[in-house]
Amino acid sequence: MHPAPTRSFRIDHDSAVHLAAAGARTLAQRCGLRGAMPERAAVVASELGSNLAKHAAGGILYLQPAPLGGGIEIAAADRGPGMAELERCLRDGYSTTGTLGSGLGAVRRIATDFTIRTERGTGTLACARLLAPGHPAARLDVGTVCLAADGETQCGDTCAVADTGASRTAVVIDALGHGAHAEEVARSGLTAFRRDPSMPLPELLSALHKALRRSRGAAVLLMRVHEGSAEFCGAGNVRCQIVSPDRVTHGPSGPPGIVGWKMPLPKVHRVPLTPGSVAVVHTDGIDPRWPGARRPFLHRLPPPLLALALAHGHRLSRDDATVLTATALRRTHDH
């Protein structure tokens, strides 16, 4: 199944909450969740959406498949006042509006994984993942958002993540143009990536190049995350940054070229990825000036919320936009 673009619902009235809940139920079914899980997804979307409607400004609910499969992700972002007492807000029964107040407490109880951050005067970011029973827990060390340009239902941007042995490999694709043809190109690239994402990165990029030869082509950046480092290989205007708690460092984006048409000789660039830092890869639908914001709150976000923050706050809505985030892998030791 090829992923559709992330669906977004602007929560500016109560009926938008119901639309988002219905969308979450349908997506849960499409992603293979069975039994009561689709209804639980609808409850999570309804609770997060209702919280936006009651307390926030500029609130949007985002729905998409979980980045590593097995379920769905429901995320909320706003530019509201933030929460003064976050832990208190996460308790069942707590309300500041005189309502039942089960919202965020219910979300934390229902979701397989739930993460939330808030800043006074800035707003709140929340991400809930619901996975099928028996599926490995949704690790919060990777995040993705893929949005079609305003007015479009099809998207020429896409991304994917795969665990490849002791590493994790990801691809971000920005097909040239817009609409149905660009989406077809992006999907062809994704199919080539998924055949064997564990290949050496130059070989993997060459496989994408071969798959896209009879198309307009695409900008592509491959990333492979190891313990303590990340490797990059690509061509075209897909950008990379390394975000640490105190700074943003520009990473080795691909050289000029078009995968599928005129691609330079693939080269791999390795950069250190220290504990607590996050690798960010995004297309030109994300404003490239975002690193200049120098916001400690942004720099300290976990990967799912960092991807959400960039898509929500720094998106150029006239273009398709994709952002992918990942932390350094941690080696597990047998005892």
UniProtKB/TrEMBL annotation:
<dbReference type="InterPro" id="IPR036457">
    <property type="entry name" value="PPM-type-like_dom_sf"/>
</dbReference>
<dbReference type="InterPro" id="IPR036890">
    <property type="entry name" value="HATPase_C_sf"/>
</dbReference>
<feature type="domain" description="PPM-type phosphatase">
    <location>
        <begin position="140"/>
        <end position="328"/>
    </location>
</feature>
<dbReference type="InterPro" id="IPR039248">
    <property type="entry name" value="Ptase_RsbX"/>
</dbReference>
<dbReference type="InterPro" id="IPR001932">
    <property type="entry name" value="PPM-type_phosphatase-like_dom"/>
</dbReference>
<protein>
    <submittedName>
        <fullName>SpoIIE family protein phosphatase</fullName>
    </submittedName>
</protein>
<dbReference type="Pfam" id="PF07228">
    <property type="entry name" value="SpoIIE"/>
</dbReference>
